[in-house]
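Sharing a chain and its predicted structure for anyone who wants a worked example. Both blocks are below, sequence first, C-alpha cells second.
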Amino acid sequence: MPFGYASPEQIMRDRAEYARKGIARGRSVVVMQYADGILFVAPNPSKALHKISEIYDRIGFAAVGRYNEFESLRLAGIRYADINGYTFNRNDVTGRGLANLYAQQLGMIFTESIKSLEVEIVVAEVGETPADDQIYRLTFDGSVFDEQGMAVIGGQSDAVAGRLKERYRDGLPLPRALDAALAALTEPGGERPPTTQLEVAVLDRGREHRKFLRLTGARLERLLAEAAAQEAQEAPESPESPESPESPGTGEEGAAPDGGAPPTAPEGDIDTGSPE
C-alpha cells in the first residue's frame, strides 16, 4: 500500500520546476541571424567543455544546463546526421529533423523518468538565403519553438532577450551582431566578459561545404574592434555652443548704432515679470 499520493499534474509541475531551477543557474547563450549567416555567443571560461558545437555541414548546436546531459544529446544528433547523410543524401539531414529527434527524446525522458533533463538547446541551420535560415529552441519537456531571427536560452533569458531585441536588426553585419549579442549578455552597469572567456562561432553561408567556424583569438579581437569603430562613426557629434552675436555699434549692450541713447521699447511690450 503506497505511503502517499501525488497527482500526475503535481508530478509534472515538480519536474518542470526542478529543471527550470537547474537551467537558470547557468549563463545565457545567444543565437541570432546576421547578414551572412547565424551567430552563436556564450560566456564560457572553459576551453574544453563547449556549449556551442557543429552537428553537420550546415547545422549548429547550442545548449545550457548540465554538461553531461546535453553532451549526450549532441552525440546522438551527430550519429543521427551521419547515418542519414551516408544512407540517403547529405541534403536530407536538416535542422527540422534534428529538432524532431531531440523533441522526442526530451519529451520521453520528461514524462517517463523520475528526473527530467536540466537542459535547454538550440538547433540552427543556415540556408542559401536569410529567408531559408532556421532556428529551433527546445526546452526540457520536449517543446519546440520555431524562433524568428534570434533565440536566448538559459540563465536570465527573458532579461537578455529584452536587451537583445532593442539592438537586433535584420541584416546586421557580423561585427555589429556580435556587439549586440555581448551587450545583451552584459548586465546593466556590468563589464563585458573578456574574449578569453567567450565562446563564439558562426554558420557562414559563404563558406564551402562545412559552414561552421569558431571565432577565437585575433580574429575575435578584430571583429570587436570593427564594431567599436563603426559605433563611434555612427554616434552623433555633440553640437557646438553657438557664439553670442556681437552687439551693433560700440558693442555695449543696448547701445544705439549711432552712439545715441538706446531705443525705447514700444508701449505695451515691456516685460514686468508678473504673470498675465
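Comments welcome. The CA atoms of residues 267 and 273 lie 16 Å apart.
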